Amino acid sequence: MKLSTSHVILIGLLAIGIAAFFLFTRQATSPGHEQETESPATSSPADDPTGQGQDFPCPEATPEFFNVEPVTSLTDALSQIITVDLGNGETITITTESGTFTAPFDTFPTEIEITLLPNTTHNLTVEGRVREVVQGNCTYGGYTLSTTRDRYGDPLTIEQKQP
Question: Residue 10 and residue 108: Cα distance in Å, rounded?
């Protein structure tokens, strides 16, 4: 099959158009988007304090759940087990009138025994440290959740009364 001159010219223009497309669109950006001044391949996580990669934004993290089971109040016991659930937990700290109690989050759920002062109302503040996780250039976790209420919204208050 012999190509006519017009076919050869059309094929040539098409080839030039395709080459021009690939050459010139490398520098194009979306409207409202500033062009990067640094090649993504040469950047490092240390150059990006936001944790957002040069090629893509980090996906938004799912919030970790944090629940404290209800406490027993009124009690004559001088200690009580506090049960805490924390997604991706690292440590649990309970602060109350009788002191501060910290335990690693190594079981699910974590049970922490706190001591109670006699004839004292104990107002508990439970803090859960969420483990830091790094995936590529994205960092998640590394923060602390805090509550003074149980999973049902009731205050974490233990009234200890000696008989």
Answer: 70
